[in-house]
Amino acid sequence: MQERRQDRPSRPRSLVLALGACAGLLSASLACAQSAAPAPAAAQPAARPAGPAPGKKPSSADVLAAAKPSDWRAVNPEQALQMELPSGMVIIELASSFAPAHAANIVKLTRAGYFDGLAVIRSQENYVTQWGDAEEDEAKARKKPDNLGKAPAEFSRPLKGLKLTPLPERDTWAAKVGFVDGWPVAVDPRKGRAWLAHCNSIVGAARGNEPDSSDGSGLYAIIGHAPRALDLNITTVGRVLQGMEKLSSLPRGTGALGFYEKAEERTPITRVRVLADIPEAERPRLEVLRTDTATWQAWLNSRRFRGGGWFVHEPAKVELCSALPPVRSAP
Fold this sequence. Notes:
331 residues; nine-stranded antiparallel β-sheet; disordered N terminus
């Protein structure tokens, strides 16, 4: 079955080739990590952040409660989707500044009703949930809009022009990491490139053998520990902002790499809409904590230096995928 799926690199199931290579058995994961890990960066990490002032340490909740309205950014409804599952809603923000061609395609597909009535076709433990068209016969597959453009491989983008708020902590997978407008970003300063990291809740576009074989019609969300070996190998297109539990709690597929072998095992997608197309009175209004403010630095420190009486050992550090910015409904 696995070989049959790999024979069709243009179909969503061919994500097996890219995602399956780094999942499953421990030996496969170790081999993938060893082959994907970059050489140690020559640059020295930034200085370790200073601890909080003596006295009561503010918790994350304390920091957020004291945040000003200007510390939050509104999610653009033209660049966000609402996916309706039988269990509830999933809200996804598209990363148009990192994957503009894919984001444009996903909006076109959504407005054409392409995803409506399709299904979640895969759920692999500690890895991904994938959705799209399960049909492997091209002649029977769901028709895509005529104006859907070919999307190039958008694995990274120029670093120039990005306002990166760096993390001082060292990262295993990149010379430098940080946040841009709330997105977790890894950077190669020598090449002048930046990319979205594969953290939990990040959404990517399924592809086949060819790097440019994705078009946004097959999508997946990371539901397990961050598989950073996928960075620079697949186009990351967004992040689940709300409803992550609807995807991570689905029954695991029993087929190869977590695919559902029977149609009745799949979770149907009722419909997907662009938020801007939902009547304003019904439209979810979400905000993401800005990552270029003093409040953001205070929130990071609340994660490094834990307040309260429960913690015996303070980590005194964070890492990129453990520090995704909070999301809230707009007041």
